[in-house]
Every structure is written in C-alpha cells, then in structure tokens.
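Kindly inspect this one:
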Amino acid sequence: MHPRTILNALHLRPAADRRPPTAGRRPAVYLGVAVAGAAVVNLVVGSGPAAHAEAVQSESVSVAEQLGVDGTAGPADVVRGLGPLAGLAASRSSREDAEFAAQLTQAAADQAVLDQQRAEAEAAARRAAEEAAAKRAAELAELAQLAELAAAQAKAAALAPAAKTPAAAVAGAAGSVAATTRAKISNSAGAINPRAQAAADAVVSNVPGAASITLGGTRASAADPGGHPSGLAVDYMVLSNSALGDAIVAYHVANWNALGVDYIIWKQRMLSSPGGAWKQMENRGSPTANHMDHPHVNYR
C-alpha cells in the first residue's frame, strides 16, 4: 500500500470519530505516523527496482538459454559461443561457391558441344559443296568429250557420208553376233572392258554404216560410275543419222543376252530389258546430254 493512502486513511476519519486533540498526546501521534509512513515508503521504493531487475535478469537468462549461450558469461565468452554460427555461415558460402563453379563448368561443357556440332555441320556443308562441284565438273567434262566426239564424227561424215541403213539390212544382221572387224573405241580413262569391246566389234561388223562412226569408251562420268569409268559403256555417235542410231539399238535389242546388254539410252529414253518398255528421262539440257545424237549402251 502506498504511504499516501495510509496517511489519508489516518487523516480522513469521519467527523464524528474525531476527538479534539489534547496537548499531551499530539507529539507522540505525529511521531508514530511518521515512522509508519517512512517504513511503508522504504518497503515500496526499495523493493520495486530490485524486483524489476530480477525479472529482466530472468528474461535475459531465458533468451540466452534458447540461443545456447551462457547468460552469465562475459563479452568474450559470448563471441566464443557464436563460433558455430560463424562456421555455418562459412559452410553455406562454400557450398554456394561450389555450386556456382559447377554451373560455370557445365555451361562451358555445353558451349563446347555446341561449338563442335557447329564445326561438324560446317565441315559437312563444305564436303557437300565440294562433292557437288566435283560432280558438276565431271558432267561438264563428259559433255565436252561427247561434243568432241560429235565434232569428229561430223568431220568424218562430211568427207565420206554414210549410206542410210535399210530396215531389211538390220533385220538380216540381227541374228548374227560374229565379229569380222575390230571396233576403234576412243578411251580416255583406261582400257575398255573386253565384254564391251566384243559387243562393239559385233556391232561394227553386222550393222551397215556403224564402222564409220566414232565410238566413245572409257572416261570420267558423274552420272553412272558403273558405265564409262568402268569401261562397260560405249557411245555410238551417229549424230544426225537417226536411222543408223535406230539400227544400232535394234541390233542390241535383238541380241540382248548374246551381247551382254545391261541397258540402252537413246533419244532421252531408257530401256532396261529386251521385252520392256522405254522410260522417258529428265531433260539434261543439251542434245548430246539427252542422247539425241548417239545411243548409249551399258554392258554387263
């Protein structure tokens, strides 16, 4: 109880209870009241801060216990107690650094794969371009050689024009493959295959007018590696003598197996069997490339 309340309780009595003070008792009453008030004030004022300090100290000790730190330790002890926390922070930083380094390594590996794929694609594109250029060059060389053969045949025809081959003569020679004349074949890439040479010998020996034309044998070719480059194909350069070309083709069809024919190309068409149908071919851009001026015969 507050001292003032006690004083008020002592002084605020009802008027009926009050007695007139006597001269002999007043000093003693005052002295007793003063002593009681001083005791109460000392009790309240003296115990308040101590109790508050005790509560604060208890709360601090509770928080310190939760953090795992001795509440009675000094500053140096507190710093030492925070060592595990610092270790955890350092460990986390190390993990983050390791993860970042791993990400950099993976990114570098991915980029290396992409670079390799790009290099391979570029190399493949270069190879394809080189192969296309080589193929085109071979085709041009083939066309040039065919043109040269055609020019030579035209010159020979101007000096000694070949007679037209009658159909009856072709029919009469169809059954014979005996060779009496050796065909002269122009080869620029090695010797002609013996099978092709024998077939050409039979043609010039049995088809009237065939001995006076130019025959083309081995040469580089991008269209059919198994034909002219291997020595198994012969071009019979009839030029404008279409009837002679028809006669040479008819002779091969009539003696297909005996001559070892594989296929015939004539006038932009292909025949793959003696009893089969002619198949139209794509336009190759020139009369010679389309075989309009010469039958091409491939032998097995």
Summary: Strands lie at 185-186, 214-216, 233-237, 261-265, 269-271, 279-280, 296-299. The first helix runs from residue 3 to 11. Residues 3-12+27-79 form one domain.
